[in-house]
Each structure stands twice: as structure tokens, then as C-alpha cells.
Task: inverse folding
């Protein structure tokens, strides 16, 4: 498969050699600074670590308005359970599978490494005609958009902004959901496990996962919810001790893996195994279309001395079953568009005596977001947990009179002979935060087609990269007059 434009894919290959987990973007910041220096481009970095690289207009384009190309530097670092990689030091290994670029057992990093690569190629393409150009690279988008939140007025000067962080070629986004994370803490004490009990490790693995916003309506199983269903079933049929529980990792990824260790009387061990096999068959049947690779395992492990106390374990399992997960409300204005959702992102035991749960909520309507947060808080408060709702980030309100949108639609029709889809996205984009600091900035978002984002199945549809590049170039070459 030919990689076009070559410069974009060359830069993407360089980027994937640079470790860039969220909150650890130091190496990619240095990489961009060195890129600017080697190409004699103006570069500045703010206190938060956001990088802005600027280039003057090409001859004859000096009267055009400055356009900002924007992408985020960090990537979601997810891997398969059998992949051994240190995301803070090791490169991403890519390969070509037909028309798709993929990574070996990890996220690909095209979210948003391909956006970075396009901006870099625009800054160095000697044939591209453009007005004043600013390329903004933000840090820590994936874990809270903190880089965009820290940008101060005046850091950018452009009137128009193209966010290169969307995942469906042929779609132009003009709005996004706001979001917030909720932290839940249970405290427990250790109780002794009876000597005639045996321990079993229960694992739900290799679910499809995906983006907790854009994929939340695709009927994919949440590993934490699936595991909680089984634990609820067993706790109500047998004398069960919950020893440990661990599921999910990132607030913006649908959990693919969850596991627990339980202890049950030895004389019911085979019954519990039988129940698990029947349960696994039911889940496979329920999710036969979206979870073809799901794996369910139960194995005997050495019996520990203690478990989570019964009252806390029961409250925890009940709350995990009761809490809202998935689509909460559908839009009344846009058929088939998710307005409000939640993702039971992670359940962890970070230290002795403590269980920590993270749930992410999204909505394009502030009142619905508040209602969902309250529903989740009430569920866990009733279970005796401490609940902390974070401040979150704002949505991006669509502008139907957008100049840059009209230009983008016109250029797309000219290039490809068809209308692009103009829509909002049920995910967080940094445009929401930019609109607070730069209320008069006119913005759109588009990008090449990605699938499996925020999971090791992430892949990039190679032909759409060239389509997006040509679309972006056409907009830059016909930038509005100042």
C-alpha cells in the first residue's frame, strides 16, 4: 500500500519513535522544538508545555488571515495482556495490513500523532501556498485536556483554527460534548477467610473496548460491568469472600479487561465453575456481534489469609451493578446522536484498605451532565463510599454561520464531488476550551479515518490520510482575506 503523502507518513514514523504517554510529553516537546529549530521556524513553549510553531505567509499570501492547525501531543497507552512494552521508553511498532496501518499489540498513536505529522508537513512543504500559519501542539489532552485548559489568551493569534483530532474522513465537526470524571473511594478492613475456603481467579479479557465517548453507543461490553454481574450472581447464591478486584485503566477507554479473586467453600467450587461457564456463554450470546474475541477464564489460586470485609464487598458489588453505564440520554434534536453517557472506567485497589473507582461522564447539555453526575454520586453514597465530582471541561457549541466551515464544505465538494457530513461529536475536543479563551475564534475539526481508538485495535485507514491532506491544503491555499 503506497503511503501518501510521503512526508506525512515519514513524520508519523518519526513521532512514533518518541515516547509520549499523557503527562509524560517531555520528549515529544523537545522533538518539536528541535524540528522548529532545524527548519528555522519560530517556536515558543508556554508554562504548561504547549508548543506553538509559526511560519510566515508565502509570497503573495501576506494579506490572508492566520490559520491555526492544532493537534495534541500525548497518546493513550493501551496494550494487549501479552505485549511487553514500556511506553515511557519504547517506540510504537507499526505494520501495514491491506489499507490499514496498525501497531503490534498496542495503541497506534494516530490519535493524534497523525495530526501532528500533518501540521509538520504543512510547515515544511515548499510547494504549499498559505497565509500566516500557526501550528499548536497541546499536551495532556487524553487525561483531562489540561494543556488546552492552561493556554492563555494571546498565545495564539489566528482567527481560524482547524483541529486535526477527528476520526472519520468526510465528516466535519463543529461541536463536542463536555465531560467530567467522578472518583469514588471505598474503605474496607481485612477479614479472615475460613480455612475450608478455596480461592478462584475470575478473568474477563479481550473485549473490544474503544473510545469512551465516540464508541459508547456501539453496544460494546464494559469488562467492569460484566465482572460485576458475575460477582453479584455468586454473592447472592453462595457464601463468597471478595479478595481483590482490578479492572480498566483509563477514564476515556471502555475497559477491555477485568479480574477478581474470590474465595468460596470448597464444597461449592465446582458449582461456581459451572455457574461461570453458563454466565460466559450468556455474555457471548448477548454480545455476539460486538465481542467476538471475548475470553472468560477461571482458575484456582493460592488461598490468601484475608479478604475485603463482607459489608464493603456487598456494597461495592451492588453499586457496580446499579451504577449507570453507557448511553444515558439520546439527543432530541439530532436523531441517533448520544447526548449524555457514562463509562465505568476503572476499579482499582491502590493500597491496603482502599478501593478506588473512576467513572467518566459526557454530555452536550450541562443540566443532563449534572443530573448524571448526581445519579452516580447517589448510587455510591448509598453504598457508603466517598464521592468526588471533578470540575470537568466545557462543550463546544456549534456555530452555523462559521466562515471556516463554509470554506471547508465548499473545498470538500470541489475536491471529491460530494457533500461532507457536518456534525457534532460525543467526545471531548480541545475546541471547547479554546472557545472560552478565544471566544471569537472560528473553528472546525476533521481528520482521517481511525478505528479502535484508545485500544490495541487502533488502526489508521491509509487512503483517507491523503484525502484529508488535500482538503486541508485546499483550505490553507484559499484562506480568507484579513
Result:
Amino acid at each position: 500500500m503506497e503511503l501518501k503523502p510521503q512526508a506525512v507518513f515519514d513524520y508519523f514514523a518519526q513521532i512514533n519513535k518518541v515516547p509520549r504517554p499523557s503527562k509524560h510529553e517531555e520528549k515529544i516537546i523537545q522533538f518539536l522544538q528541535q524540528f522548529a529549530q532545524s527548519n528555522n521556524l519560530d517556536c515558543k513553549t508556554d508554562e504548561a508545555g504547549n508548543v506553538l510553531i509559526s511560519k510566515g505567509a508565502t509570497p503573495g499570501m501576506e494579506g490572508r488571515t492566520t490559520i491555526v492547525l492544532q493537534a495534541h501531543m500525548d497518546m493513550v497507552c493501551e496494550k494487549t495482556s501479552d505485549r511487553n512494552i514500556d511506553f515511557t521508553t519504547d517506540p510504537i511498532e507499526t505494520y501495514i495490513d491491506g489499507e490499514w496501518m496498525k501497531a503490534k499489540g498496542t495503541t497506534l498513536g494516530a490519535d493524534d500523532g497523525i495530526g501532528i505529522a500533518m501540521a509538520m508537513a504543512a510547515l515544511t512543504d515548499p510547494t504549499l501556498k498559505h497565509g500566516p500559519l500557526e501550528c499548536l501542539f497541546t499536551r495532556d489532552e487524553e487525561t483531562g485536556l489540561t494543556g488546552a485548559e492552561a493556554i492563555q489568551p494571546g498565545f495564539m493569534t489566528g482567527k481560524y483554527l482547524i483541529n486535526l483530532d477527528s476520526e472519520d474522513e468526510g465528516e466535519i465537526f463543529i461541536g463536542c460534548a463536555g465531560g467530567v470524571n467522578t472518583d469514588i473511594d471505598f474503605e474496607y478492613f481485612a477479614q479472615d477467610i475460613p480455612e475450608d475456603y478455596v480461592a478462584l481467579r475470575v478473568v474477563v479479557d479481550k473485549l473490544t473496548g474503544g473510545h469512551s465517548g465516540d464508541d459508547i453507543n456501539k453496544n460494546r461490553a464494559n469488562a467492569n460491568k460484566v465482572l460485576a454481574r458475575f460477582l453479584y450472581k455468586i454473592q447472592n447464591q453462595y457464601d463468597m469472600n471478595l479478595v481483590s478486584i482490578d479492572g480498566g485503566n483509563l477514564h476515556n477507554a471502555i475497559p477491555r479487561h477485568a479480574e477478581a479473586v474470590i474465595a468460596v467453600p470448597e464444597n461449592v467450587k465446582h458449582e461456581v465453575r459451572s455457574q461461570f461457564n453458563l454466565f460466559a456463554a450468556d455474555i457471548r450470546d448477548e454480545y455476539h456481534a460486538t465481542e467476538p474475541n471475548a475470553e472468560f477464564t477461571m482458575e484456582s489460586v493460592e488461598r490468601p489469609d484475608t479478604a475485603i470485609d463482607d459489608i464493603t464487598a456487598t456494597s461495592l458489588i451492588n453499586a457496580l451493578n446499579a451504577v449507570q453505564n453507557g448511553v444515558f440520554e439520546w439527543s432530541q434534536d439530532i436523531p441517533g446522536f448520544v447526548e449524555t453517557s457514562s463509562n465505568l472506567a476503572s476499579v482499582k485497589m491502590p493500597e491496603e484498605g482502599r478501593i478506588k473507582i473512576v467513572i467518566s461522564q459526557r454530555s452536550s447539555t450541562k443540566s443532563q451532565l449534572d443530573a448524571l453526575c448526581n445519579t452516580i454520586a447517589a448510587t455510591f453514597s448509598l453504598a457508603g463510599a466517598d464521592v468526588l465530582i471533578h470540575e470537568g471541561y466545557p462543550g463546544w457549541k456549534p456555530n452555523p454561520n462559521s466562515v471556516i466551515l463554509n470554506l471547508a464544505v465548499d473545498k470538500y465538494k470541489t475536491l471529491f464531488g460530494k457533500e461532507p457530513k457536518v456534525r457534532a461529536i460525543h467526545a471531548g475536543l480541545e475546541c471547547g476550551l479554546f472557545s472560552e479563551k478565544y471566544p471569537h475564534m472560528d473553528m472546525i475539526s476533521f481528520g482521517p479515518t481511525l478505528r479502535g481508538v484508545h485500544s490495541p485495535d487502533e488502526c489508521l485507514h491509509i487512503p483517507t490520510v491523503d484525502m484529508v491532506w488535500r482538503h486541508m491544503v485546499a483550505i490553507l491555499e484559499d484562506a480568507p482575506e484579513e
Observations:
- The first helix runs from residue 6 to 15.
- DSSP finds eleven helices and 23 strands in the chain.
- The chain has a mean pLDDT of 95.
